[in-house]
Design brief:
The chain is mainly beta and 114 residues long. Helix content is 7%, strand content 46%.
Length: 114
């Protein structure tokens, strides 16, 4: 009989919020009717330029903090806060912010909420 692996508190939060398993929850702030989760995103192995589709992208020095809305849990609003890294394409000399595949950055919400 297979046993389920026991999850720690951070892994349980990621599972409850239906986020990818490589996302790390740093800490949580509770407000009156909203919970804010501060996330730490891992660096992607394959960084593909959205303009020329090259994979010669490197991380630049600056980052941008983004707050997005996510699916409510137990009737409470959920906000996710994370840093987006600035990327630079050496092939076409363009720069852009990385965006996780589970975020609709123009609408500032997760795909699950959309």
């Amino acid at each position: 009989m297979l046993r389920k692996k026991k999850l720690n508190a951070a892994e349980e939060l990621v599972h409850l919020l239906q986020l990818p398993p490589d996302v790390i929850v740093d800490h949580v702030e509770h407000a009156l009717d909203e919970d804010t989760f501060f996330l730490n995103l891992p660096l992607q192995d394959k960084r593909i330029c959205p303009f020329c589709k090259s994979n010669d992208c490197i991380v630049r020095g600056s980052a941008l903090t983004q707050t997005i809305r996510h699916i409510p849990v137990s009737g409470r609003k959920i906000s996710l806060v994370f840093s987006k890294r600035r990327m630079y394409c050496e092939n076409c000399s363009s720069s852009y912010y990385e965006t996780p595949y589970w975020v609709l950055s123009r609408l500032k919400m997760s795909i699950k909420l959309y």
